[in-house]
Amino acid sequence: MNVLNFVNAFFSDGAHWHGYDGIPQRLLEHVRYSLLALALAAAIGLPVGLLTGHTGRGGNALAFIATAARALPSFGLLVLIVILMGFGLLPVMIPLVVLAVPPILVTTYEAVRSVDPSPVDAARGMGMRESRILFQVELPVALPLILSGLRSAAVQIVSTATIAAYVSLGGLGRYIVDGLYQRDYEKVVGGATLVAVLALVTLAVFWAAGRLAVSPGVRRR
Amino acid sequence: MNGFFDIPSDLQHSWWGLIGLHLREALLPVLAGLLLALPLAQLCVRVRWLYPPVLGLTTVLYAVPSLAFFVVLIDYTGQTELTVMIPLAVYSLVVLVPAIVDGVRSVPEETLAAAKAMGFGPVRRYVQVQLPIAVPAILAGLRVATVSSISLVSVGTLIGNQGALGNLLADAQKYDRPELAVNSVITTAVLAVLCDAALVLARNLLTPWMPRGTRTRPRRAGRRELPEAEKAAR
Question: Which domain holds residue A102?
Answer without folding.
Answer: 2-9+27-220
